[in-house]
Structures are given as structure tokens and as C-alpha cells.
Amino acid sequence: MKPSNDHAVSPVVGVMLMLVVTIIIAAVVTGFTSGLVGSSPQKSPTLAMTVKVMNTGSWTGSGFFATVTGVSEPIRTKDLRIVTSWTAANGGNPVSGGSRVVPNNGTSNIDTLFDPSVSLDGTTYIAPFGYGPGVNASRGISSGPTFLAFSEPRQQFGNYSLVSGTTLSATPCGALDAMSVGNSSAPATDGYGIGTRFQYSSGATGKTDAATAMLGPGWEHLRAGDKVNVKVIYIPSGSVIFNKDIPVAEG
To answer: What is the pLDDT along the chain (251 residues), one digit of tens a residue?
Structure first.
């Protein structure tokens, strides 16, 4: 009688079945884990800008100015956070400062107008202000080459998008009000550099204008040769999409 080989086949089949089951379980666990972690991380847009930080010693020409030169896609400012930091040499007595600008956040609001002809109605304005491309139905320039309608909600940080050509600005008070750059025919009695260069007048001391909101209290200590680090953070991914040390110019 021929001997049976069934007892030799059964262990082999059993081992193969266990391997198949193990592979299936591993595939299921891997797929489940990938689903929890997220198979693809949040993609961050790219941003290129030219940035200037000016301190002329007065409200005229001083402040933070940036122009977008390129983006991979339109970037909503409601998805951005801007962080500035600096150390001013200040004649051998260093002073440090900076700010954290968040859209629709009170810490970066402009909450005081300095010209007595403007009603102090508690309205808040969020710098940096935008105009040009990317600012939906922007009023843009309303009087001369430097006067901006900053009270227009669509021009406030968080309400416009960055595209190529968008300009952002945050300037000190000293013209019609704390929000405007102003012009020579509309002087103010309170503001930056009025009375004494590189100082705020007594009526403006300790109050928040656009430059202070953008660069932080004490920004007036900055001089040519100092540098301001500017970071732009894309909030959905937490990635830094712009990071540059900007040399201060005095005009």
C-alpha cells in the first residue's frame, strides 16, 4: 500500500494561509494609520515680496512697505500671520522689539485716531493695509500718490488676498489721522516726528498707529544699519513662506 503524503501538505497550506492573513492585516493597519495621519500634508503656497522698512524721523515716508512680486496661487491674508522682530543698536544701548500680526485680532488693531476732527468712535483698523491687485473692489488711491482709504474694510489685513502686485503698508500717524499717510496740505498737531524727530508727540505717545502695530512699540529707535526680521507664516500648514532680514533705511 502506497503511503499518503497528506500529513506533509497540511502544514505547508497552514503556513501559507497564515502568511496571507498576516499580509492582509498589515495592509489594513497601514491603510488605517495613513487615514488617521493624513496621506498628504497641507500644501503651502509660495510667496515672494520686496519689503522696505523706513524711518525718516517723521511720519513722512516712514513705516513698513511690501510689494508682492510672485505667488504660486492667490493667498488669503486671513490665512497668514506676520511676525516681526528686531534689535536697534541705539547708540550702544540696544533696544529690542517686534510684533505678531494676526488677521482679525485685536493685538494688531489700530484703535486711536489723533486728529481732533475725526470722531473717536472706537472703530478698529487692522494693519498692514492692502491696495491694488488682490484687494476686492478697493478704493485704492483716493487723493494723491500716498493717501489710502484705510478705513475701507476690504483693505484691512485679513480681508484681501496676496497676488502679484499687491502692496501692503503700515505707516505712523501724522497727517489727517492715524490711518492715513497724508499729504503736505493736511498737517497734524500730533503724531510721529512732529516737534522732535524720531519721537512721537506727547499726544501720540503710548498709542497704537499702523507702524507700531506692524513693528511693535519702540520701533522709532530703529536706524539705518539695523535689521528687521520679517516672517510670513501660512496658518493652515504652520509653514514659514517668507523669512528675510530687512535693512532699515532712513530715506
So the answer is: 555 555 555 666 666 767 766 777 777 666 555 554 444 567 999 999 999 999 999 888 899 999 999 999 999 999 999 999 999 987 667 789 999 988 865 444 443 333 333 333 445 667 888 888 988 644 444 443 333 444 556 778 888 999 999 999 888 877 544 444 334 444 556 778 888 899 988 766 666 788 888 999 899 999 998 999 999 999 999 999 999 999 999 87
Alpha helices in 115-204 (DSSP H): none
**Rounded CA Rg of the chain:** 28
| Sequence-ordered strand ranges (E) for 179-235 | 227-234
> By the 8 A CB rule, do 215 and 53 touch?
yes
Cβ atoms within 10 Å of 96's Cβ, excluding its own? 12
Q: How many CB atoms lie within 10 A of CB 36?
A: 7
Eight-state DSSP code of residue 93: S
Give, in order, the Cα–Cα distances in Å from 247 to each of 103, 104, 121, 148, 193: 25, 28, 37, 25, 21
CA distance 129 to 171: 9
Provide the sign of the torsion angle of the four alpha carbons 233, 50, 110, 45, taken in this order: negative
pTM of the shown model: 0.73
